[in-house]
Input
Amino acid sequence: MKKRRRTATAGNLVKVVDYTPPAPRDTKQQRAAKHKTTTAAQKIINTKLAQGRLEMKLAANFSNKDYFVTCTFDGENPDRKTVKKCKNSFIRQLRTIRRARNQVLKWVFCIECKHGSGRYHLHAVINAVDGKTDFEEIRSLWTYGHVEISRLFDSKHAFNTWLDIARYMTKERPEDGKDETPVGAQIYTCSRNLEKPIIETEWIDEKEPFDIPAGAEILEDRNELNYIDGIPVKFAYVKYLLKPLHRTE
Output
């Protein structure tokens, strides 16, 4: 019997799911049971959760040499509209400077205001191009308050994986007017030039194991067997880094 293997590769991060999809010879009940499991397996890679989408975007476009940036506001706490204008102005200026030097700008921003003192602030991931110059430019262009910049996996942060960063940047749902953004909606913005994860599917033998490269760091590895309407259905899942992420001191 064959099973389906679905692999998503986002830079250094790889997610693989094996599952048995419905077959023409299955009974109606068997097809329904396998369909539920197939859907559950695919959601692991194509998750609708904001943190899952962001995890893959970060891994596909950034490395531990890039920056985690926090921007705050001095004086009176601004409203959300003002925060967005400040963020957009900052991005335009940084993009203009880099374009003049034929340098690429990639970024992901989120806006927060629901913890601590309730003041608005932003978190961002921005790609590095020129070491010390990057730090100076980012600080000089954010004229509205304080800027904290560090490498993505700097030892002073608790970020050990892309998922850690994604969870941190999606811990709040932004407010827009009277209503909160619906659960599951994208609660961050990103540059349009971000690369997408590579998705590959193939048919393999039912007993074929995962082919994990030597030196890879396994982050998750599990097999799930569920009984749906009395019918056993299963899928296997592994997530790993091709090379371990090195924290900087």
Observations:
- The CA atoms of residues 90 and 207 lie 53 Å apart.
